[in-house]
Each structure stands twice: as C-alpha cells, then as structure tokens.
Amino acid sequence: FFFFLIFEVFFGVFSFTINSAITINAVLEVEASKVGCSVPAARKTGTTICGVVFKDGVVLGADTRATEGMIVADKNCSKIHYISPNIYCCGAGTAADTEMTTQLISSNLELHSLSTGRLPRVATANRMLKQMLFRYQGYIGAALVLGGVDCNGPHLYSIYPHGSTDKLPYVTMGSGSLAAMAVFEDRYKPDMEEDAAKQLVRDAIAAGIFNDLGSGSNIDLCVITKSKVNYIRPHDEANKKGVRTGDYKYKRGTTGVLTKAVTPIDLELLEESVQTMDTS
Amino acid sequence: MKLRLFKQERCCPRMGPGCLSAGLPVVCLFVVMCQTTIMAVEYDGGVVIGADSRTTTGAYIANRVTDKLTRIHNKIYCCRSGSAADTQAIAEIVAYQLGFHSIELDEPPLVETAANLFRASCYRYREELTAGILVAGWDKRKGGQVYSVPIGGMLVRQPVSVGGSGSTYIYGFMDANYKPGMNKEQCMELTAAALSLAMERDGSSGGVVRLASISEEGVERRVILGNQLPKFSTH
Question: Which residues form a coiled coil (chain A) (predicted)?
Fold first, then answer.
C-alpha cells in the first residue's frame, strides 16, 4: 500500500513537474525568439551501441560520434558509462539524459552497495533505471545497454526510454541498431571466446558506423569479466584522419628578395603605476 | 532536429525508409509495444496460458523472444499485452504488493486478489496506461481461474480468454473449438493452435509460442519454436 501510494504520488508528481518543465521550456523558446536567437538543440548521440554475452562475461561496444542536428559536435565522445566496478552502461539518445541518468544510478548503486556490503547486481541497476525512466514517462530520452558480471554470472539488458527492459544474450540500440543487429543475427553463437566476442562486437559497431549517418568515428569496447574490466578506448580507430601528403607553405628563399628596410619603433615610457595585491 | 517524444500508443508517424533516404540520422522514439496474442484457458485442476514472443518499436522487432508470461506469485501468472513499459511496471508493482500481502496472510494468495490488484492500478490510471492483461493461476479455494483485465480497467472472470492485437483473428476459432471439460493436454493443443493461427495473420505477433500450465503440482513451462508450430495452411 505504501508502494501503491508512491505509484500514485509518482503520477501526481509527474504531472506537476513535467507540466512545469514543459511550460518553462515553451516560455524560454518564445522569449529567445523575441530577442532573435534560438534555443540550442538537444545534442543527441546518433549512435550505435551493442552488447553481447560470451562465455566468461559481457562485451559492450559503442561508436564515438555525437551529433547536433546534421553537424558532428564531438568526434570522440565516450558512450560507455561507469555504473559500478562490475557494471557498465552504453547510452544512446539524448546525450545529457544518458550521462545524467547513468551518473545518478551509479551514485545510488554505490550507496546501496555500501548498505548491503555486497557487490551490486546487474538486476538491481536494471530495476533502478527502469523505474526512474518509467516515472518520467519517456521524456528522458535515454536508451541504454546495461551489462555486467555479478555473483549470478554475466547479464545483459536493453532499457528503452519509456522504461521497458529486455534481458537478452545480445542487444543493439541507437540509430545504427538495425545494421549492428544484422551482424549479430548472422554470427552470434552462445558461449563464444573473448576474442571472438570482441571481434563480433567490433564488426557490429563498424556496420553501424559505415551504414548509419548518425554513427561514426572510432569503436570503443568494454570487456567485463568476473576478475577484471578492460575498458578499451579506442579499440579500433575505424576513421583515422588522413595525413596530408603535400604542404602549401613555401620555403624561405622561393621568392627573391630585392630590398630590405628595417625600422625600429621607439616607445617612450610615459607613466608607470604599481598596484599591490592585497595578500594576507 | 527535434527529438519526437510520444507517451501514448499513438506512435509517431512512421518515418521509415523514406526519411533515412533523405539523409537524416533518425532517432525517432516509438513506444515499445507488445501488441501480441495472449490466451488463457481454465481446465479442471488448473489453467493453461500462452503468448507469442514479439515486441515491436514501430516496424522493428525489438525482441523476438520475449517472455510475456510474467510470474506474479508461485502459482499466479499474468499475460501482458499493450505497452511494454506500462505492463512491466504494473506487473512488478502488483508482484510486490501480492508478495507483501501473502507474507501478511502467511498463506498463498488468491488469484482473485491478484486480479483485483491489477484492476485497481489499471482502472485508476486508465488515462495514462495502455495495458491489456490476463491474470491466471491456481489457488486452493477456487482452483484454476482466468481473469481478464483489458484496457480501461474492467475485471471479469472467464473460462477462456484471449487478448492482444492478434486475438481478433481467433475469436471464431475459439468459439468453435473450445468445449468445457477439456483436460490439460487438450487445452495446451488448443492454445498452441490458436496462437499459431493468430501469429500467422497478425503482423504484430510472431516468434515462438510460450506455454505454461499452472496447477496444484506447480508450474510447467514449454516453448514451441517456429518450425514446430502446428501448420494449417496448405497454400
């Protein structure tokens, strides 16, 4: 019943806060257009993110492009976020939402872990994330791939902005998810070795990078096993900037010098004042 | 590019391949739906429940092996259809409430109690939710029971019930083939056949057929893979 009341309060609180947030944003937009500028567009990570469960753990992968409309805002952003020593989370959707959501849950999970005295479980992180996202009814645009290894083995979840979750052996999210899923559906096998899993994830992200306009740049990987976490950034610089073969600079002496005249400019010191800094 | 956000099941206009060819990186938020076909049948001594396994976001299948038969208590399960987020959240809340209630009572809870908890949430928040749920299970007092809580929050007990978008295609099949007094195996076959027919015709249903039977002995779960489904079509 206490929980029922919370559910009730959630909806009550939700309508109040979301409404006020919407009205504030609407007012800001109007005021901004009056002055002549526009409200900045939300920076989104177009994104391809994916995860796979292999024999000893999970491999998470992500591209590194963040877009603002049609422009690449960040060529090398980090989309694999830390949740706890054994749990990491990839985020697609609105960049600020994924960043803040994962940081909030990471903080709460650390407190929870200190209370219980145990290493946190992936299912706990999943519950916390889905309950928060459901409370905001999809207005927090965070689509997440949550993966980690705990006392019950390796786990992988996909979490959608409205708060639904799926527990699966392989998941993809983001605008490049269809390209990545095509690679997974072709080559996934249960109980793969670590190197095969890393190669599979790398290929899936590469499919997203090269076939989706919203994804690009490098491939980051995060391999989580019972004993260690390997955060490989970048794992693969799939889009290295080329080196120019030539140079437009001309060497000194290319153009012949006919005459040279040097005129030193004498400056006269007129006034000098010293102001001591108040250091106490 | 504005991020389109829709909280109701009225998905945003299908942008689809047309938009992608215009060169726009689309992060369009469709609501994740379990449009589904779900079914529950009572027999003397328990219930048989079944569901397909498809979850969609727009035209993309987000999960092709979903388990829509969610455990609420040891011998009480629910079949979920509608918005995936809404039904998962409600099921988790009801599971918590029922678990608490069961500890207070110090005995297994009644299926009718579980159904009423679903009804309470679904009716109170009927404007915000899109959830069609079948609650089914076994208890000592009334044996096997099936309760239907469709969108809007009505509660009604029925001997056999179907739900979800694919259910419309099998009402006729149900009316013709359901007879009271069937045993467990006959109920299983009926459910599998009905779900196969619905999955064949409904685009939002597909994948595998998940079956479960709940009785005094416990819960028995089965999966029928795509190539093992009963075939009806000759053309």
Answer: none
Whether A58 and A51 have beta carbons less than 8 Å apart is answered as: yes
Are A175 and B25 inside 8 Å of each other by CB?
yes
The ipTM of this complex is: 0.84
Amino acid B3: pLDDT: 36
Q: Do B63 and A137 touch (CB under 8 A)?
A: no
Q: How close is the nearest chain B Cα to the Cα of A76, in Å?
A: 18
Instruction: Read off the pLDDT band of A184 (50, 70, 90).
Output: very high
Per the structure, the count of domains in chain B is 1
Across the interface, which of A3, A93, A138 has its CB nearest the CB of B97?
Answer: A3
Q: What is the homologous superfamily of the domain A48-237 according to CATH?
A: Aminohydrolase, N-terminal nucleophile (Ntn) domain (3.60.20.10)
B10 touches A: beta carbon within 8 Å = no
Q: Do A41 and B2 touch (CB under 8 A)?
A: yes
Q: How far apart are the first and last CA of chain A?
A: 61
Residues of A annotated as catalytic (active site), given as ranges: 47
Selected residue with higher pLDDT from B97 and B11: B97
Strand blocks (E) in chain B: 32-34, 38-43, 46-51, 55-57, 60-63, 69-73, 76-83, 131-139, 143-149, 156-157, 160-163, 209-215, 218-224
